[in-house]
Amino acid sequence: MVRSLWTAATGMIAQQQNVDTIANNLANVNTTAYKTETNEFKSLLYQTIQTKTTTANGEQKPVGAQVGLGVRNAAITSQFSQGAFLASENAFSFAIGGDGFFAVMGEDGQPYYTRNGNFNVSLGVDGLTLTDMDGHPVLDTDGEPVVIGDIEDIVANKVQIDASGMLMYPDDDNNLQPLDIQIGLWQFQNPAGLNKEGDTLYRPTAASGEPINEADNDNLTPSTVRQGYLEGSNVQVADEMVNLIVAQRAYELNSKAITTTDEMMQQANQLKR
Questions:
Q1: Which CA distances in Å does 48 have to 1, 44, 45, 68, 127?
Q2: Cα–Cα dist 66/51, whole Å
Q3: CA 253 to mean position of chain CA atoms
Q4: What is the rounded (10 degree) CA torsion for 86, 87, 88, 92?
Q5: From 19's CA, which of 175, 184, 195, 250 has a CA 20 to 30 Å away?
Q6: CA distance linking residue 244 with residue 238, whole number of Å
Q7: Model confidence over 203-259: pLDDT tens digits?
């Protein structure tokens, strides 16, 4: 069996996965709060051809001989760097500055976490409820849905929010007063370990650690919330195009190694003629 054929094949497979990841980054360049992903590679097992103590006359050798058997994808890591703040006409658009995440209640009754603050209000049976664009209720600092108030008492477009996520509403003198409702913000020890659920939603895993409520932990650097803005994608198109060129060239080189090996085998088969 010729090792170079299989080694180059693993390189082509790995680079195809790399191109898939880059294509997904470029496809989501305008997705709110999307976090760019990078491929991490690791080498496969090495085959020992000769140990460092083996020579023709039994003398000690300082270096052995090992041949690598290729590469594989080790991980696809999300980079949670801050995206740019983009102005929005939606009064219930919120951008997070810092490491925090909003929480929404999923259809299964479990909390999911997101950086996408493109929210709106739903006319629920309990009153005006803050939800995401898919209708999932946004959670407050106690893990309960954010119910702003009764439809008869609250005008939705007058609701404002301060930097801590506290909802405010003007009184009769047009002075903002707190509604004693604060949008919850959570952080994770390792956000890259979150499981991606689609629709910019994340689910905690053992790798990410349990969510940490910023309202209950003074050791965290608190995040800030900006009303009237959305966090843009942190994808850098120029970097992705460079990465795409590098991946394409690496794919071509591995395919060239397969072609070269094929030619060498052809030459070896023709030696008897």
A1: 16, 13, 10, 9, 70
A2: 8
A3: 29
A4: 90
A5: 195
A6: 10
A7: 999 999 999 999 999 888 999 999 999 999 999 999 999 999 999 999 999 999 999
Residues present in the chain in total: 273
Contact 161, 229 (CB under 8 A): no
Backbone φ/ψ region at 252: left (φ over 0), alpha (ψ -120 to 50), beta: alpha
Q: How far apart are CA 164 and CA 176, in angstroms?
A: 15
- pTM metric for this prediction: 0.86
Domain segments of the chain as ranges: 3-80+235-269, 85-231
Tell me if 94 sits within 8 A of 226, measured CB to CB.
yes
Looking at the DSSP bridge assignments, the partners of residue 75 are 40
* Rg of the chain, C-alpha, whole Å: 27
What is the C-alpha to C-alpha distance for residues 244 and 266, in angstroms, rounded to an integer? 33
pLDDT per residue as tens digits for the range 150-164: 766 778 888 899 999
